[in-house]
């Protein structure tokens, strides 16, 4: 399995102070996300596709939507819309006449309609990396703006990329990016990568006539911008007038606050939360903030209202009851408890979940078995596709309402923050503390303190490892916590794939500051290492950091290579881990889907 993070970018020096995660947001406004955050222009690909999809839903039956084809779409759209789709996907200006080469994956079934229409000609040239062979289509342009079209109406992930060269090699070429505005220009040659979200996939073969040209890399997520053929989806858990998907998360200080989020259908524009201490009638009501979310391809629930309320000034160690609602209806009465200062609490954590229905059953059994659980932790890949509203609907639906009374704390995995498009849906659905590294989007990497334990929650998928090193060091150095836990998706210790950057940049910090447990996922099996320090296994549980990778969905169920530092390896999936802290004692168990304890250990300080 290839890593899809951006942290191994080799051309960082050419970026100056620009940030890679801005580039990763290129196509996001045309996909699932916040409908009211972006005003979509009708002369943009996003604006055209939004209008086209609306008409398709109005005019076709579900059965017809499931059989859409390129030919149908091209006959359905207007000439003006077709022109936009042919020219507004990628635009840049050149100062001299140029030859533009479009490298298109030869395995894509449908050639983008605009290539031949614009006068591009297919050459006999081929460009290759270790997985794909690209045809080279070329056309000469005069000085001025060059406009290129969509990758297709399908979702072919290895989207085309571009190189540009002056017609007259004696003329110095200057390129000004128009859209995407954050375009980075590198050099086309062997060893170059073409996708920002997969920088490890480099070119192995480039014809001599193309070497040295200006290369315009892209991201695989751009395949989604005009996706409609085979792309219409349906949710089994559509929104309604009554609030649902009620989810608690923790603020930076769980002793004095709580964050509550929930969903209603798009007709609900205002909502509130009323809360009160248990055994009292002293209620407080606050208005919630609304965000209108859109998943353009979700035919039976395209728009939903998402609400969030931040409850503050609470008393430590107190149970509160609450109701969320609006003038048209309200939820049942739920409850939450703030942290206290007795240094005794428990939490439960999961590896990869992937909106698995069986995981939902495991979660509910865990909730019944350990009602004292203060919160749940998820180490990434909560869903299969982070931009799909129906995947999130399944995740919340299968959870059975557990997160309405016990908070969920999570980090994104590569399925939640996918194809270089970031984790916008994840961010809209789950609110976490805004105390991460300066300059990075909030709520993806963050920290919280629960009684005498520090939790560092790190997004290793969306942001470079090096960009977060100093923040991790400061958080660990400043903490007087007795227990220190770190959660991120990619495991630094595994036989599946090396992560030398994590081992080099982060692991020494975990060693130096005596992190107790690092929790990971990604590879769909269970691995608990011996305590590790300096890359070596330790005999004393308090003498190093224990790294644990687990899986809440199906496991790999093969033998695999047993790592020499493995204290325990389990190939089956649908596991969860429960950690109980009693002051300076930690008791850990790993439990399978039928309730058997599969692993356990204790740490005493």
What is the element layout, followed by pairings?
Blueprint: H1 12-15, H2 20-23, E1 33-34, H3 45-59, H4 62-65, H5 70-76, H6 79-87, E2 90-94, E3 98-105, H7 113-118, E4 121-129, E5 133-141, E6 144-148, E7 161-166, E8 175-179, E9 186-187, E10 203-205, E11 214-216, E12 244-249, E13 258-265, E14 272-277, E15 284-287, E16 289-294, E17 303-311, E18 319-326, E19 329-330, E20 334-337, E21 344-350, H8 357-369, E22 373-378, H9 389-398, E23 408-410, H10 424-429, E24 446-450, E25 453-457, H11 466-478, E26 483-487, H12 500-505, H13 507-512, E27 517-520, E28 526-529, E29 532-533, E30 536-537, E31 546-549, E32 566-570, E33 576-582, E34 585-591, E35 597-604
Parallel strand pairs: 21-22, 22-23, 25-26, 26-27, 27-31
Antiparallel strand pairs: 1-16, 2-6, 2-8, 3-5, 3-7, 4-5, 4-10, 7-11, 9-11, 12-13, 13-17, 14-15, 14-18, 16-17, 18-19, 18-20, 21-33, 24-25, 28-31, 28-32, 29-30, 33-34, 34-35
Helix pairs in contact: 8-9
Describe this structure as you would to a colleague:
The chain is an alpha+beta fold and 605 residues long. It is 17% helix and 30% strand. The longest helix has 15 residues, at 45-59. The two termini are 38 Å apart. Residues 1-40 have low confidence and may be disordered.
